[in-house]
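Hey, I'm writing a tutorial for new members on how sequence and structure tokens pair up, and I'd like a real worked example in the thread rather than a made-up one. If someone can provide the structure for the chain below, I'll link this post from the tutorial.
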Amino acid sequence: MKIEILGTGCSKCKSLEKVVHDAVAKAGIFAQIEKVEDITKIMEYGVMSTPGLVVDGAVKLTGRVPSVDEVVELLKGTQKSVSDTSQGGCCCGGKC
């Protein structure tokens, strides 16, 4: 899972980064977390109000700092099931 935090360095952007790290730790998931501060890249996502949260290329949240629990739920809803081969999961058909 790739998580991008969109923001130019304001206090809300820094808060979102901390919340995301805490949520990933709480959920016990593996994720690559990247901070995106380049305004051109932020605008490519169509985000006009920072901070922004992008998970696997999809904008999930803009303009506010969510709670840790809200991010945990958002991340859990984004994870793919290993047995779900129709959505790009494991190739064994759930036999592993």
